[in-house]
Amino acid sequence: MDTLIFILELTGMPAFAISGAALGMRKGMDAFGVVMLGLITSVGGGVMRDVVLGITPPRTFSNPVYAIIAIVVSIITFIVGRRHRLDLARHKGWAMAMLVTDSLGLGAFTVAGMTLALEVGQEGAFLLVFVGVVTGVGGGVLRDVLAGERPYIFIKHVYATASLLGALVFLALYRAAGVAWASIAAIAATVLLRSLSAHYRWNFPHAE
Fold first, then answer.
1. What is the rounded distance in angstroms from the CA atom of residue 54 to the CA atom of residue 151?
2. 38: which residues sit within 8 A by CB, 6+ positions away?
3. I want to staple 132 with a disulfide (CB 3.0 to 4.6 A). Which of 50, 92, 114, 156 is the partner?
4. Is pTM beyond 0.90 here?
């Protein structure tokens, strides 16, 4: 199961790093700020998850490959965006690519959180769903708060709801179908809802 968790986390890491770095560039941050925002977006949810599960030190610090990948991707994003004067957060080509990769990352991180909880012996339904969603959206919330933005999950594209759907699908299937098949189904459900909500501009009603 360690290998599955590692693969799932590596799937989402680059997409989350790019989203954090791109927002940092749009906010006019320097290279250090851009890299830190990309790093926090990538590993923040996982650190929150590990704290909830009582895993110390969090896996990010015991296995630096996560931080290294996030830092490298953030640096590349900064160099490419600055050299070509691209607003990566708004560029149409990047926006489409980020929708796909970020959706995969959201689903993968959600499943990774639940899988790790199972590995450490936690089987309560509420806790599994909670750590799954926190792992999926926690880094993005930290990113937005540090960048002075309203957290994305509260205003756009039923983002957290897609993570919640994936978590519920995993919860419903992992005993009967096994963790691997439940993971695939959960990621697929997350990507589907996330993509449909972005395409059709689905949002919950907003306060006036």
1. 26
2. 16, 17, 18, 19, 20, 21, 24, 70, 71, 73, 74, 77
3. 114
4. no
